[in-house]
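Q: Structure tokens for this one, please.
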Amino acid sequence: MRCPVCGRENNPDSLYCNSCGARLTVKQPVKGNKNTIQALIIAVLGIILLAECAFFVVTSNSGTNSENQGSDSAAAGSSDAGNDGITTDTIVGTDVDVEPENPVDTDSSSEPEEKAIPANVDIPDDASTYNGHSYYIFDDICESWEQAAEYCSSRGGYLAVINDQEENDYLYDYMLEIGYDEVFFGYSDWLEEGNWKWVGGHESGYEDWGINAEGSQEPNSSNDYEDYAHMNSSMHDGHWNDKKFGQKTVCFFCEWDYEK
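A: Here is the predicted structure, written as tokens:
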């Protein structure tokens, strides 16, 4: 080792110059170079290993997804092929709704809804029916219009209330069909002369008063007892007349809000 002061060569292990005694500068060996290189090699190998693992995971997932898609497509195709003609009645234990090929139309709005008849409603078996209502002509069981109203009510109905021309025509034809010439219904002014009202507070804006044989417009109240409306064949076409109940006839229409 060369002395930096006198330039003399000394033994490599000398700390001081053998000639001038100056302290020699010893170059310390660099430590750790080998360890550093080994660490770098390990790090590089680790990176390579991680990259290979990541590549393997990606390629594996891609293959799995492709298989799943293929399985789903095959299952969908099988399902479509097997669903021909299948209705909801043939599927058991599934939440999947399958529309039937020929769905049944359950809309019955075009037909009147049939109401259940309560136990207290007593409609004769041979009653006539129209527009969801039943009608029947009773004869010789009541002596007054008031009794007739009570009788209809006791059977769960009421003296007939006429609401329009069609219903009036129907009742007139029904009357003639079973052989009656005149029948009373639920319109009167017995509470107040000239103030005609429907039985039981029913509302109807319909009237069909006729002209009698003398050419007089009905109602004419020709006596104090003509307080009840009725239709008769002599007025033709179902036109109405006011008359005393029990004069020649005690026939009356009962009506029910149900079809027998």
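A few notes: DSSP finds three helices and eight strands in the chain. Confidence is low (pLDDT under 50) at residues 74-96.
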